[in-house]
Specification:
This protein has five helices and seven strands; from the N terminus they run βαβαββαβαββα. The chain is α/β, with parallel strands linked by helices. It has one domain: Rossmann fold (3-Layer(aba) Sandwich). The protein has a seven-stranded parallel β-sheet with strand order 4-3-2-1-5-6-7, sandwiched between helices.
């Protein structure tokens, strides 16, 4: 992102499960790191698994991480969330995550991730899938870099 620009920083949501294997964890970490390196904000559900791995990558690269938590307690956030926002609305917070982002990357995950992808369609937000759901309308990417390369041109206005 051009530092001289007056545009606000873009927010990328990471969609993914509370549990993940090493392959998904590594991919999420790399995506988070790339988000920070591109000077974008990482937004997620703020807890474990994919969310924690992505936050760790962004955090270690000096990025801003925001977690919208399902409960009322900020201590539920993983240790790499810089801004923890308790919603108190459980999984309904998935809608807030999608409505608050400019684009999303699904990494692994199960039905909660699927619901977030559906919210992306409803909110007309770009979304891609990295080792996640293979459904009509979702572009499959095969690497963290490909995920970022897919999202960036879809969230920045053409000049």
């Amino acid at each position: 992102m051009d530092k001289s620009s007056n545009q606000r920083q873009k927010i990328i949501a990471i969609l993914g499960g509370r549990e993940c294997d090493q392959k998904i964890q590594s991919a999420a970490y790399s995506v988070g790191k790339l988000i920070a390196e591109k000077e974008m904000i990482l937004l997620c559900g703020g807890r474990s698994g994919v969310m924690e791995a992505a936050c760790k990558g962004a955090f270690e690269a000096g990025g801003l991480t925001i977690g919208i938590l399902p409960g009322n307690d900020t201590s539920d956030a993983n240790s790499y969330v810089k801004i923890a926002l308790p919603s108190g609305i459980g999984i309904a917070r998935n809608s807030i995550i999608v409505r608050s982002c400019d684009g999303a990357i699904a990494i692994g995950g199960k039905y909660g991730t699927l619901s977030e992808i559906a919210y992306c369609f409803q909110a007309d937000k770009p979304v891609c899938s990295l080792f996640s759901w293979d459904i009509e309308g979702v572009t499959q990417v095969n690497s963290p870099k490909a995920a970022i390369d897919y999202i960036i041109p879809r969230i920045f206005p053409k000049t």
